[in-house]
Amino acid sequence: MKKVFIVAGIIVVALIAGIFVINIYEADTEVTKDTTKVGVILNGETDDHSWSQSHYDGLEKTARELNLSVTYRENVKAEEIPQIIDQFAEDGCKVVVANSFEFGEYVNQAAEKYPEIYFLHATGLGEGKNLSTYFGRMYQIRYLSGIVAGMQTETDEIGYVAAFPISEVNRGINAFTLGVRSVNSDAKVYVSWTNSWNDDQAAEDATNRLLDRHNIDVLAMHTDSVRPLAIAEEQGIMSIGYNVDNSGDYPNTYLTAATWDWENFYTPNILTCLQGKFEGNHYWEGIETGIVSLAPLTEKVKAGTEEKVGQEMERMRSGMFDVFYGPIYDNCGNVRVEEGESITDNVMLNEFEWYVEGVVNDEE
After folding, report:
1. Residue 12: CB atoms within 10 Å
2. 75, 6, 68, 70: which is closest to 31 by C-alpha?
3. DSSP annotation string for 291-345
4. Which pLDDT band, with edges at 50, 70 and 90, does 2 fall under?
5. How far apart are CA 266 and CA 58, in angstroms?
6. Residue 39: in which H helix or E strand, if any?
7. DSSP symbol at 208
8. Are 147 and 312 spatial neighbours (Cβ–Cβ below 8 Å)?
9. Using the 8-state DSSP alphabet, how is residue 358 labeled?
10. How far apart, in whole angstroms, are the C-alpha atoms of residue 180 and residue 152?
């Protein structure tokens, strides 16, 4: 654990930094007058309405800003990566982007093999002279979407379809539940596992288990499959999406979504590649950067929800609050985070193996 120190001026710093990046780009037309080739390796499809599409949408915006020619390889298996990167190198790509944790070993090897190419690896770990890894603090948006669910539910039974019990997913479940219970202390969040990121049948089965066992009236998700949203629409259950805003596809039940705006990472960081100013880092960036955001609330949300979400969003943006500030109890009644303390980044990233009060693991 670490002591909580409030940094009220963080938003000012972020705004100044944002203005600085914009000014660099506007003043540096020399590096964007020629087209730069970029290769992108996706574990899904560019139009999957989910994780891979979020990267595609962001990169397309960045491509227009920085004059990039982007080649996408979709549905890539990890063992295919060496051959793909060899082809990217032969084609003259100056930057390679990969969007899945499982690609890490091969991306790291390629970064050593091709020191003249810059590598950006989403959800990866570590860094190098020509390699950066990055992710966003999506748990902050999970908390806000939990407020939406907590205010929406009438049965106090909320469903959560989740991929794997790993730190990334667990901290999202916990943040969501803390948001729920900040406005509705009687509500519980029931979790059903798919043990897959994008298997539609597994997601359908996990969703149906929740609906069969409980009186679920709001459903959230952390999978790349959108089957839970489709089932919710079919059965008239309110839903909260993930990765991209799919509100147009589910007009009767969609409330909001925890979404990625990757252009806010790709544009400044690919720009540093073009300028020759790249420095390899591991980035974990928060709500103040714009990488993670809450999709616009639909007309289905209850009165007062938008105001409450706005208040909490501003608290996070100002640096006055973050999700895992104590006191926090686990779902066995133990104090896990004391008053005046918070969970460290290392624990959140790598060691989040417990659940907060209000979470029910439906598979146990």
Report:
1. 11
2. 68
3. SEEEPPPPTTSPTTHHHHHHHHHHHHHHTS--TTBSPEEBTTS-EEE-TTEE--H
4. low
5. 7
6. strand 36-41
7. H
8. yes
9. T
10. 10
Angle at 148 between CA 310 and CA 251, to 5 degrees: 110
Q: In the structure, how many helices (H) and strands (E) does the chain have?
A: 11, 17
Q: Which residues, at least 6 apart from 267, have a Cβ–Cβ distance to it below 8 Å?
A: 21, 25, 61, 62, 65, 66
**pLDDT tens digits along 76-112:** 999 999 999 999 999 999 999 999 999 999 999 999 9
Task: DSSP letter for 146, please.
Answer: H
Distance CA 269, CA 202 (A): 36
3-state secondary structure at position 359: strand
- Enumerate the β-bridge partners of residue 96: 39, 119
What tokens were used for 130? 């020509």
Do residues 225 and 50 touch, judged by C-beta distance below 8 A?
Answer: yes
Q: In this structure, what token pair is assigned to residue 243? A: 């990765």
**Nearest CA-CA partner of 254 in 228, 233, 231:** 233
pTM listed for this prediction: 0.92
Bond into 165 cis (ω within 30): no
Indicate whether 7 pLDDT > 60.
no
Q: Grade residue 6 by pLDDT with cuts at 50, 70 and 90.
A: very low
Q: CA-CA-CA-CA torsion for 55, 60, 66, 69, nearest 10 degrees?
A: 100
C-alpha–C-alpha distance, residues 123 and 136, integer Å: 9
User: Which tokens hold the place of 354?
Assistant: 């417990």
Using the predicted structure, report yes or no on whether residue 11 has a pLDDT greater than 70.
no
Per-residue pLDDT tens digits for 151-182:
999 999 999 999 999 999 999 999 999 999 99
Residue 300 has pLDDT above 60, yes or no: yes
227-230: long-range pairs with CB below 8 Å, 24+: 227/200, 227/203, 228/161, 228/203, 228/204, 229/254
Band (295; pLDDT cuts 50, 70, 90): very high
How confident is the model over 114-139, as pLDDT tens digits?
999 999 999 998 899 999 999 999 99
Q: Give CA–CA dist 171/139, Å, rounded.
A: 6
Tokens 């069969």 correspond to what residue? 212
